[in-house]
């Protein structure tokens, strides 16, 4: 899986979504914001959106394995 240099804003968005998920309070607005940001990041860099999303989740949710 590719390694990405995620912007702080995208990392913060995913961290917020992850916190909401863990609290059982994920909102549609947060989920949509993350998806839009992931899609834009992938398109701008010519990356596969799925790979970007999985990489972002790994960095935010499992930083110990995200070398």
Molecular structure report:
The protein has 67 residues and is mainly alpha-helical. The protein has a domain at 26-67. The protein is 69% helix and 0% strand. The protein has helices at 8-22, 28-45, 49-61. Helix 1 (8-22) runs antiparallel to helix 2 and helix 1 crosses helix 3 (49-61). It is globular and about 35 Å long. It starts with 7 loop residues before the first helix and ends in a 6-residue tail after the last helix. The model has no long low-confidence stretch (mean pLDDT 94).
Concise overview:
The protein has three helices and no strands.
Question: Quick check: average pLDDT?
Answer: 94
Class from secondary-structure proportions: mainly alpha
Question: Gyration radius, to the nearest Å?
Answer: 11 Å
Main sheet overview? none
Record field, number of beta strands: 0
Distance between the termini: 11 Å
Poorly predicted ranges (pLDDT <50, ≥5 residues)?
none
User: Given the structure, what is the number of helices?
Assistant: 3
Secondary-structure element order, N to C: HHH
Shape: globular
Helix content: 55-70%
């Amino acid at each position: 899986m590719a390694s990405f240099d995620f912007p702080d804003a995208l990392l913060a968005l995913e961290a917020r979504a992850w916190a909401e998920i863990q609290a059982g309070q994920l909102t549609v607005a947060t989920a949509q914001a993350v998806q839009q940001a992931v899609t834009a990041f992938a398109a701008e860099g010519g990356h596969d959106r799925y790979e970007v999303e999985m990489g972002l989740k790994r960095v935010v949710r499992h930083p110990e394995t995200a070398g």
